[in-house]
Specification:
The strands form seven sheets. This protein has a six-stranded antiparallel barrel with strand order 3-4-5-10-7-6. By secondary structure, the protein is of the alpha+beta class. Helices cover about 25% and strands about 35% of the residues.
Length: about 375
């Protein structure tokens, strides 16, 4: 009797343990559906700005631009003139110098004196930028004003050496990085507040009517007053209450959690056979028949040479005769049936059981989309 009670107790506690795990998993799944407003939006006016420049990388071990790169030769001559050194262009050898383009992204929060990374890309016919040093070069934005001054050692992370037609190369040696090589000289003029009504413009990273409405409702319910209004599926206009610190006000909004209502997407790359899908993509009831038809065509050639066996006339010649054999075979079609509400993972698992290839799965997804059984946006790359 005691043994029976003990076994029943163990079974009870085991069942309760599994139930608690299931409840915890369900709660975790519900929590995972909510995201911070900060993760799916950004405020208008605060954007990164690209800056670009032209410069020279010196100190290369004979891997720089040749004299055919006229811009490099002219740039070296102009640089030497700045130091009161006049050398004819025809007398310059630039194999240790490379002309480069400089690119960087200037953060809206960058201030004078901040340092940023600068990417260096060869402009001429240099073979490698390994060991080079970027000379001081201005970097400008679209308004043609200088915002960054760049200079420093170039880090490539690769190499290329060649001798007598033999080449050893690692990675891409004509593009490098000057870490913290750009010094911000001028701050960008960013406007966080709207120009017309003085309101904050909260922009969704992925436009959606329902998500925009939910964000506006969440902000209004949190502050208890109507301060947010969805102007479009991508923009929510927010008027900050008077007397509030703007930074604290924005921080509160960014930490609010909502459930976005984005349309499910299935991304298919036919070149690589890659399929990426979210877990919320569902299918209608569907039956899929997948078969395999193989056709084998084989042709053999033989020569008819009648003059070897008997006397023939002048018009009788050797003829090559083809003999073609055609064989067709078709395997029995594999049938896959899925109930309404099945996910893409269920579909792929079922197709894998009938040994369907990735290409077959992609063709099935395209057919499901055309039939209306796939309730998601299908993006074929």
């Amino acid at each position: 009797m005691t043994k029976i009670i003990t076994n029943a107790s163990k079974l009870f506690f085991k069942s309760m343990f599994l139930l608690l795990i299931a409840l915890f998993s369900a709660q975790s799944a519900m929590a995972a559906l909510k995201v911070r407003i900060k993760d799916i939006t950004h405020f208008s006016g605060l954007i990164d700005n690209p800056v670009v420049g032209y410069g020279l990388v010196v100190g290369l071990a004979g891997t720089g631009d040749s004299n055919r790169a006229k811009q490099t030769v002219q740039s070296v001559a102009n640089m030497l003139k700045a130091f009161n050194i006049n050398v004819p262009v025809d007398d310059l050898n630039t194999r240790n110098v490379a002309a480069v383009m400089l690119t960087a992204s200037l953060s809206p929060y960058a201030y004078e004196g901040d340092k940023i990374d600068v990417q260096v890309s060869s402009l001429g016919d240099a073979r490698s930028l390994v060991g080079g040093t970027l000379l001081i070069a201005p970097m400008k934005a679209a308004d043609n004003q200088t915002y960054v001054i760049a200079q420093g050692a170039v880090s490539v992370g690769g190499y290329k050496y060649d001798m007598f037609g033999n080449v050893v190369q690692k990675n891409h040696p004509t593009v490098g990085l000057v870490s913290n090589g750009g010094i911000v000289e001028k701050t960008l003029d960013n406007h966080l507040l709207g120009i017309k009504d003085g309101a904050l413009q909260l922009v969704l990273n992925r436009a959606d009517f329902t998500t925009a409405s939910r964000i506006a409702d969440k902000i209004n319910s949190n502050f208890g007053i109507e301060i947010a209004k969805a102007r479009s599926p991508a923009v929510i206009s927010i008027i900050a209450p008077t007397g509030n610190n703007l930074i604290d006000f924005i921080s509160i909004i960014e930490r609010l959690n909502i459930t976005p209502d984005d349309q499910p997407v299935v991304v298919v790359n036919e070149r690589t056979g890659t399929i990426v899908t979210g877990g919320d993509v569902v299918l209608d009831s569907v039956s899929i028949s997948q078969g395999d038809l193989q056709i084998n065509i084989q042709t053999d050639y033989s020569a008819s040479q009648p003059w070897l066996v008997r006397q023939t006339g002048d018009d009788v010649k050797t003829v090559v005769l083809p003999h073609t054999k055609i064989h067709a075979s078709e395997d029995n079609a594999s049938l896959v049936s899925l109930q309404s509400g099945a996910t893409i993972a269920d579909l792929i698992s079922a197709l894998a059981k009938v040994k369907a290839s990735t290409r077959d799965v992609i063709s099935v997804l395209e057919a499901l989309k055309r039939s209306g059984a796939l309730h998601a946006e299908l993006i074929v790359q």
